[in-house]
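Appendix C: a fully annotated inverse folding record. The material below is reproduced so that readers can follow the format used throughout the book. The structure is listed first as tokens, followed by the designed sequence.
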């Protein structure tokens, strides 16, 4: 829980009293590798702070899995659109390793936000951070070539290249696995 507390403090100030109130709404949930945190078609009612392991978000497009995001330690995994609108998720979030999370339940979180303005502010900052991260990710697909996307990931997020399978990474970059292999060999 301490890593979550530090993460939240990086977003906004949270007093000991507010933390105590917030912590009553949290619980630890573990997911075995390949287990889904959220399935396509379900409404997302949780935020998952990743304590250990990583997971991926993917769409099923005509039987092909298209990876759109990875969530590692100290990330929050969620479907922001589904969470905000109560509409079914268009994608799945799946554990790629055994994953330990701290789950924020939406209903409980909304109740404590009504009671404590500091928690409400923290919640808004957290959702803004997630939205900004998603926007930044979308921009690299609009502005960069496949090679530039790989170099960007390699330079700024080397843990993705080290931990994610080539199949998932190539899907995430929007290129064929063979193309990814050629890009990687040119970089070495």
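Designed amino acids, in order:
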């Amino acid at each position: 829980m301490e890593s979550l507390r530090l993460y939240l403090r990086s977003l906004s100030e949270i007093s000991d009293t507010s933390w105590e109130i917030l912590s009553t709404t949290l619980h630890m949930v573990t997911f075995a590798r390949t287990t889904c945190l959220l399935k396509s078609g379900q409404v997302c009612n949780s935020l998952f702070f990743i304590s250990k392991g990583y997971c991926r978000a993917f769409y099923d497009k005509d039987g092909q899995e298209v990876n759109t995001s990875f969530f590692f330690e100290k990330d929050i995994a969620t479907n922001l659109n589904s969470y905000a609108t109560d509409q079914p998720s268009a994608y799945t979030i799946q554990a790629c390793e055994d994953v330990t999370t701290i789950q924020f339940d939406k209903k409980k979180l909304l109740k404590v936000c009504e009671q404590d303005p500091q928690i409400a502010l923290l919640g808004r900052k957290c959702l803004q951070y997630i939205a900004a991260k998603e926007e930044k990710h979308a921009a690299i697909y609009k502005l960069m070539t496949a090679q530039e996307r790989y170099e960007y990931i390699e330079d700024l997020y080397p843990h993705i290249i080290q931990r994610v399978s080539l199949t998932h990474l190539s899907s995430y970059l929007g290129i064929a696995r063979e193309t990814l292999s050629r890009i990687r060999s040119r970089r070495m």
